[in-house]
Write a structure and sequence with these properties.
The complex is a heterotrimer.
Chain A lengths: L5 H15 L1 H22 L4 H31 L1 H7 L4 H30 L6 H13 L1 H14 L5 H15 L11 H7 L3 H12 L7 H28 L2
Chain B lengths: L3 E12 L2 E12 L3 E5 L6 H9 L6 E6 L8 H4 L2 E4 L11 H9 L8 H7 L15 H13 L5 E5 L7 H16 L3 E6 L2 H7 L2 E6 L2 E6 L1 H7 L3 E6 L4 H5 L4 E6 L4 E5 L2 H11 L4 E7 L2 H8 L5 H15 L1
Parallel strand pairs in B: 3-7, 3-8, 5-6, 6-7
Antiparallel strand pairs in B: 1-2, 1-4, 8-9, 10-12, 10-13, 11-12
Chain C lengths: L3 H17 L10 E10 L4 E10 L2 E6 L9 E4 L3 E5 L1 E6 L5 H7 L2 E6 L7 H9 L8 E4 L27 H11 L4 E4 L15 H13 L4 E4 L3 H10 L3 E2 L10 H10 L2 E2 L3 H7 L11 H4 L5 H8 L5 H4 L3 H13 L3 E2 L14 H12 L4 H7 L2 H7 L15 E5 L12 E6 L2 E2 L11
Parallel strand pairs in C: 1-4, 1-5, 6-7, 7-8, 9-10, 10-11, 11-12, 12-13
Antiparallel strand pairs in C: 1-2, 2-3, 5-14, 14-15, 15-16
The chains are: A mainly alpha, B alpha/beta, C alpha/beta.
Chain lengths: 244, 312, 429
């Protein structure tokens, strides 16, 4: 009989769930990879390093939003969350399980893109830079996990995928993750500089040596964003507990 | 165990402007099967959710296992819950779900034993989404009991099950009662309450309408519905033994009876041309509908009680 | 079906992948000697030379050198070595830098590009590590009038508002990493379409602001009139030759006095004046494996309005001839990135066109090596002496007799390492 701790079991359950819903795990994983192959490896190989950073950010964002957002909304409707809340499963372990799944998903995305960049676009970085890139992007998934959690707790499951896509795709584009924001008109560039994905990509670009970033500014924006969604998630959880 | 497993004092609950519970005072004794009866909207689900700790107590007090409050981890560890139309992560297999829930409790039951008891052995590696409704319910029951709970809360556990599956669950429930667990069973099946419960609590409109042993309650509520085509008039039928109420349907008469066999015997002897006779267990909702018919409600109760006493 | 072990395994695999991802290409650790070469050092051509390369730089150049025993030696018999070529007018986007390097262009001077990755570009060109990309210097964003030439490419260009704001405008460019300032003076008259353009006061203010901050100011012009205005305003060089009128004595005087240099950009002008791309440029024997399909299609693209201007082509060549005869410094630049050009081949085309305009092959080679290096202050480039970067191109043949031989590339070396396409020792062409 399996005697693993509840946290481990919840992580495992989350991971199994991701593996077994290829319908939406695969697109979330493949979308940035396809984009990168097309834009970074085929069309603009000279920019392969830059695009690695931006598309990896995009991928990580997707991994976090969808592992959390859609699954929480669905599980809410299913009654799964209710059952868990009635059980002695610690709430933190439930959230941690999901977070771990999201982070692992994010890490896999980054590693895949890095491998593609190294193999096909001759991107070469110091080992410390490869690790730093993976590290900052995986950690940077957390604010988006919180965003997914908050939206998942507030949205209806039928609405969740649509709304999340509506947020994910435009935000990714406007943050300069597909096309560098330097070619945007001035006012649009200013918009980009308020968006969290822009700042996460900026940190990644700094680590690989493409462009220095203002760490204080970028980390602050990411932290504020995370906090705002943490509050929204907490309120969503309270609402859930107050009126099942 | 003879102690009180849960105690509710003056519990009120509302959703927005709707009152769901309107002053509940209830003590659930340990070591017994208590059936919670009531029509839809009576407040059963709300009460259960409060006892489980997934709803916060708005007004009044609830104590479980003596001094614990619902929702506290030590309480949750001793409670097993089976919810109505509950969902789980559909992609997990039965075994994975059991292992997951087993990990939440300090002293879980053996997975193999549970699978065997609930006839789930062949389904052990099947994903939850690929199970039939009845099979899903057996799994949900297993999740409720895997922690060897002192208190089992079951919300409509056998709704939609075929007779053999129902029997499996009844046996499992009884087994736990015998080993000393307390069980709170929400149901709208009179026969289930009759068969399993030591004690019945009747809930309606957010209030405890009545409580007592199953037989005592049964006598106060119509338990069978008879439909037939008959030439007898409604007034005549009303005079038949144990008749609670009579309504004329489109082509058939509908009779609510406290003791169906008596009424049927009388009906057949009064009209030998009776056709399309159908006798079914009246569900509680239908029974309560007649009970709450304002002109007759309380009066009917007292009349029937008197009648019973006289008959007894 | 995955268990916890599966998750751990996946994490381990991810970590392993990250640790094993390749680090920067390592240069050959020892010394490389290329022997028996015809050598053009940026100024003159000598026979029977040997080059010693170590750690990305030229260690020594000479005839009878002592080659260390542990050096790898590459025989250069029959080959001519030139300094890596400098293209003095490009627009480097997409794969431009990689494509150009394969054709022996090791340094590019960009005259308008988005500065987003400029910090990385600067770091790369300061490094001596092996790379597959040409080094890049850039003007970043250009200075033009609202709605003027340069604003039509879909890239939002910051417009200098007034002569008073010139200083701030220049500072912004420098903050973005620009190496020099590019000023566009273009009223469209040479192209038959009127365009708003910067006025003289603005141009003067920009030039002054640039010079105050120790950077060069270069100008895009296409008419003689604007060329004169630019020179009078103090620009250091012109990045096109004018094609509307014959050059006159007054301009030559102005240019001489200002020690002006000019990048004629005959490659793009030949395209915009209806001249065909010559066959030798696209001979697959030399372009196979070096020029991508995309670059080739760009070369084959027709320049809008080219047929209309065909008649004026002789004037273009003639202007260049007379400027050369007057001793004005000419730099080789292709303006690649435009229709009818391609990054790499077009610089070879440019050198050939310069000889058509009267320059000798060696003059043409100087315009692509030592002269732009001097004009832009690129100390270690465009030269083959001890201390220069080991950026070289090995040609099969002697370009003195025919400049077009430069297309017969044996191998390209950047920072002392052979281009990926060439590997150590070059190809067996």
């Amino acid at each position: 009989m399996n005697t693993a701790s509840p946290s481990m079991q919840l992580i495992r359950a989350q991971w199994l769930n991701l593996l077994r819903t290829p319908d939406y795990t695969l697109p979330t994983l493949l979308f940035p990879i396809m984009f990168y192959v097309f834009f970074g490896l085929m069309m603009m190989r000279g920019q392969a390093l830059w695009l690695l950073c931006t598309f990896a950010t995009f991928g990580v964002m997707g991994a976090a939003l969808f592992s959390f957002g859609v699954s929480i909304a669905t599980e809410r409707a299913q009654g799964w969350l209710l059952l868990l809340r009635a059980s002695p499963a610690p709430v933190n372990a439930v959230i941690a399980g999901k977070a771990f799944g999201a982070l692992l998903f994010a890490l896999v995305t980054v590693v895949l893109l890095s491998a593609l960049a190294a193999a096909f676009a001759n991107v070469r970085l110091e080992t410390a830079q490869w690790l730093g890139l993976a590290g900052i992007l995986t950690a940077g998934a957390l604010p988006f996990c919180l965003m997914g959690l908050a939206l998942g707790l507030w949205l209806r499951p039928s609405a969740a995928p649509a709304v999340l896509n509506l947020v994910y795709l435009p935000m990714g584009f406007l943050s300069g993750l597909w096309i560098p924001s330097t070619v945007f008109p001035g006012w649009l560039q200013a918009v980009a500089e308020w968006l969290p994905p822009y700042h996460l990509a900026a940190l990644a670009l700094d680590i690989v040596g493409a462009k220095p970033a203002n760490w204080t500014q970028s980390l602050t924006i990411l932290a504020v964003f995370a906090l705002a969604f943490a509050v929204m998630a907490a309120l969503g959880w309270r609402r859930l507990s107050g009126a099942s | 165990m003879t102690q009180v497993v849960a105690e509710c004092s003056a519990v009120h609950h509302h959703y927005g402007s709707t009152a769901a519970l309107d002053g509940i005072d209830l003590a659930l004794s340990g070591g017994k099967v208590t059936a919670l009866l009531g029509p839809n909207g009576a407040g059963k689900t709300t009460l259960i959710h409060l006892l489980m700790g997934v709803l916060p107590v708005q007004k009044g007090r609830i104590e479980v296992f003596g001094s614990l409050r619902p929702g506290q981890r030590p309480a949750q560890r001793r409670i097993g819950v089976m919810l109505q139309a509950s969902g789980v992560q559909n992609n997990l297999t039965v075994t994975e779900l059991l292992d997951l829930f087993a990990s939440f409790y300090p002293n879980p039951d053996s997975r193999e034993r549970l699978l065997d008891e609930l006839d789930l052995v062949e389904l052990a590696d099947r994903r939850f989404r690929h199970l039939s409704g009845g099979q899903k319910q057996r799994v949900l029951f297993a999740l409720a009991v895997v922690g060897k709970p002192d208190w089992l809360i079951l919300d409509e556990p056998t709704t939609g099950l075929d007779p053999s599956a129902r029997r499996i669950l009844w046996r499992a429930i009884d087994a736990r009662r015998q080993s000393g667990a307390s069980i709170l069973l929400c149901t709208h099946f009179m026969d289930e309450a009759q068969k399993l419960a030591d004690h019945v609590v009747v809930l309606n409109s957010g209030r405890v309408l009545d409580q007592g042993s199953p037989d005592a309650i049964r006598r106060r509520v119509a338990s069978e519905r008879i439909r037939a085509r008959t030439s007898l008039s409604v007034e005549t039928i009303r005079e038949l033994p144990s008749v609670q109420s009579v309504t004329a349907g489109e082509d058939r008469i509908e009779i609510l009876s406290r003791r169906g066999t008596e009424t049927v015997r009388a009906l057949l002897s009064a009209d030998d041309g009776v056709e399309d006779l159908e006798v079914a267990a009246a569900d509680l909702e239908t029974a309560f509908l007649t009970l709450t018919d304002s002109a007759r409600g309380a009066a009917d109760l007292s009349v029937s009680a008197t009648t019973e006493q006289e008959a007894a | 079906m995955k268990s916890l072990a599966g998750i751990v395994l996946l994490l381990a695999a991810a970590l392993a992948t990250l640790l094993l991802l390749p680090g920067p290409n390592a240069a050959y650790p020892g010394m490389t000697a290329i022997t028996d070469l015809r050598l053009f050092d940026g100024e003159r051509l000598v026979d029977d030379a040997t080059i010693l390369i170590a750690e990305g730089r030229i260690v020594e150049v000479g005839s009878d050198l002592d080659i260390p025993e542990d050096a790898r030696t590459i025989p250069g018999r029959g080959l001519t070595v030139l300094p890596g070529l400098i293209d003095a007018h490009v627009h480097a986007y997409g794969n431009a830098r990689t494509d150009a390097l394969r054709m022996g262009v090791t340094t590019m001077l960009d005259m308008f590009r988005s500065p987003g990755d400029q910090p990385m570009v600067i770091r790369q060109r300061q490094s001596l590590k092996p790379t597959e990309q040409a080094d890049l210097f850039s003007s970043g964003m250009l200075a033009t009038a609202e709605g003027g030439h340069g604003t039509q490419y879909g890239i939002p260009v910051p417009i200098p508002e007034s002569p008073d704001s010139a200083g701030r405008w220049v500072e912004q460019r420098l903050a973005e990493g620009s190496d020099y300032i590019k000023i566009v003076i273009e009223d469209g008259s040479g192209w038959g379409r009127p365009l708003p353009t910067l006025g003289q006061a603005m141009v003067e203010a920009l030039v002054e602001a640039a010079h105050e901050r120790n950077v060069m100011a270069v100008a895009h012009i296409s008419t003689l009139k604007d060329a004169k205005m630019a020179v009078r305003a103090g620009v250091d060089g012109l990045v096109h030759v004018f094609a509307d009128e014959p050059v006159d004595e007054s301009f030559i005087q102005l240019a001489r006095n200002a020690e002006l240099w000019i990048v004629p950009t005959l490659a793009v002008l030949s395209a915009s004046h209806g001249q065909d791309v010559p066959d030798w440029l696209t001979d697959s024997q030399f372009t196979n494996g070096r020029v991508t399909t995309r670059q080739q299609s760009m070369l084959e693209m027709s320049f809008p309005g080219a047929q209309m201007r065909q008649a004026r082509w002789p004037l273009v060549l003639d202007n260049v001839r007379r400027l050369h005869e007057a001793g004005i410094t000419l730099l080789a630049g292709s303006d690649s990135g435009n229709p009818g050009t391609s990054h790499g081949p077009s610089l070879h085309h440019e050198m050939a066109l310069l000889t058509e305009a009267g320059l000798s092959p060696l003059d043409a080679l100087r315009s692509a090596t030592s002269l732009p290096a001097q004009a832009f202050g690129l100390d270690e480039r465009g030269c083959l002496r001890a201390g220069c970067r080991a950026d070289l191109i090995l040609i099969d043949g002697d370009p003195r007799s025919d400049i077009r031989k430069t297309i017969r590339i044996h191998s390209v070396w950047k920072n002392g390492s052979p281009n990926d396409r060439d590997q150590a020792g070059g190809n067996d062409a």
